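Hey,
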Amino acid sequence: MKRRNFLKSAASALPLSLSQTFALAAESSNLPLTQAHLVSAGKDIDGQPRTLGYSRISFKTSPRETDGNLFMIEHSNLLAGGPPLHVHHAQDEWFYVMEGEVLFQVGEKRMRLIAGDSVLAPRKIQHTWAAVGATPGKMLIAFTPAGKMEQFFQEIAHGKVNMMDAELFRRYDMELLGPPLKDA
């Protein structure tokens, strides 16, 4: 087929192909956002009050908005404490300290982060953290892909869950490995 005939054939098929693609996309109930979605300072995307006991958390992005690619939470009023040592089998977890001081363990490495510092805990690498500063802290955490993390935080975000329950972690594709980090 000559180049000109090929281009004409491709051009004539394009509108049909695009209309089918858009029709299929429109049928999806899990489409990502197509415009900005503001979540104001100190607010939760769903307007829900949430606590972990050692912090107040706000959902800032939802997997529903990002086609499952991102889930982000903000910890505020972060007091002494943190989650137990665990591993995510399918999520990378990124931490950004906005205020205060937070002790992290990623793999075997321990580090203290202060405002402006960040660290990535890659999937399949054990990690934990604990707020250790003299004043309450604030931190952003992003999970990618989102996986079941939103559901996990919905279940635990009332501060009355046994965080040493291995089955709880397994339900959300994580593994509980040990107790929370202590400042030494």
